[in-house]
Amino acid sequence: MVKFGFSVKDNREINLDEKEPFVIEAGVVDVAEVDRCIFCGACSAVCPQLFSTGLSFRKQLLSARRGLTSELKIAAGECLMCNKCQLVCPRDINIRAIWLNLLTSNI
Amino acid sequence: MKKHNTQIIIIGGGLAGLEAAKWLVQYHYKVVVMEQEKIAGGHVVNWHSLYPGGIRGDELINNIFLTKDSMVQILTNQRVTKVEKRDNFFWVHTSQGERLFAEAVLLTTGFKLFNAALKEELGYGIFPNVVTSAEVEQILASRMKPPWQLPPRKVAIIHCVGSRDMKAGNMYCSKVCCMAGVKTAIHFNQQYPMCKVYNFYMDLRMHGNSYEALYLKAQTEYGVQFIRGRVSELSADQYGRLVLKSEDTLLGKPLKLTVDVVVLMVGMEQRKGLVVSDRGKELAAFDGQHFYEPLNAYDDAHKTCLPGLFLGGACKGPMSATEVIVDARAAVQVIDQYLQNN
């Protein structure tokens, strides 16, 4: 096969028609709590793991809202459970508890 | 007492004009309100509900009429074409060729809505299920027949249509649409409980007491999805539903969504067609290209370069109904002070 030096990426489009946006499984995550998120990024800015692993609660939550849940479990494993994110969250979301629930659940 | 014979003409019988008239007669002035439509009340009468409290627009106007004094004369179907300043009085010319005398003139001409058909990519005027925010208010208030037959299952609300848009010629934020968009999303959920609403925004400007709380309520109680990104393309599928294309800018990924109804939050623009002249010389400041500029935005926010000509309400820039009421009442005080000193 001829190598052209570039390749076609997978389709990155979010299709809200196929995937229901409200896929965050009830029970694992308190839906009413994560609905409060305004995606300001305060949690990821304060996160010690953002620099090393790129962990971002904001990004993962937003992706899950748009139906992209494949990275959720990996991201949960990256969390250090230091709880700095909850301290800075303007909408008072207990982010550590959400990661912990995701880690121990079998989704 | 001189006051009783002093005639003040208010141009524009909307919320600002009627509110100012109501208070000017309390100061014992003779007030004439000129309204170009068949009935006075302006944009507000068509509004289903006004944030933050949710009062009906016509209720708000009726509240003003309840305390109406016989000293207020409302002339409807009167379009003012020209305001002419003479030495210390004004001639107000109407399209019927009449000429009215006034010692002070208050401009409360308000705003006009942005013509959404100019943003072709959003399909207004092409697809019947694309409606403006003003039309939705009338539909929700059962004043207008909805273009959809079945209750909509998915609705997209697009913010900033004709606002903060250099290409549309409007380099300002229309200020009220953020809240109105959140409010409309809640109303859709209340009228059609099975409905899912998506708000496409650039920024959400929740700039007042209890506004942020309404935003939170929309998120948590009604599950309204807020997507940061401007819709760039809209087309119809074979079932007549509308396919939107946008970028989720917070994720940096393209996004596709099919909805039944699209609501465009149209911005506010200055009205054209009124000429203001000072001893025969037309003033460029009132050419209708921009919102009217007061002397300054701080302590002379109601005066203009012409002594005796005052500004009130949304002809100075986008304003919400609550701000218009405050502004009209403040204008009354300034007019009274001016007439006392003359």
Strand content of chain B: 25-35%
Q: Ranges of chain B with pLDDT <50 over ≥5 residues?
A: none
Q: What is the radius of gyration of chain A? A: 16 Å
Biggest sheet features of chain B: 5 strands, parallel
How many strand units of chain B? 20
Determine the number of helices of chain B (DSSP H or I, runs of at least 4 residues): 6
CA-based shape of chain B:
elongated
Low-confidence stretches of chain A: none
* Terminal CA distance of chain A: 39 Å
Mean of residue pLDDT values of chain A:
86
**H-E string of chain B:** EHEHEEEEEEEHEHEHEEEEEEEEEH
As a percent range, the share of strand residues of chain A is under 5%
User: DSSP helix count of chain A?
Assistant: 7
Helical proportion of chain B? 10-25%
The description of the largest β-sheet of chain A is: none
Look at the structure and give the CATH class of the largest domain in chain B: Alpha Beta
Structural class of chain B: alpha/beta
Largest interface: A-B, 19 and 16 residues
Oligomer: heterodimer
End-to-end span of chain B in angstroms?
Answer: 14 Å
Strand order of the largest sheet of chain B: 3-2-1-7-20
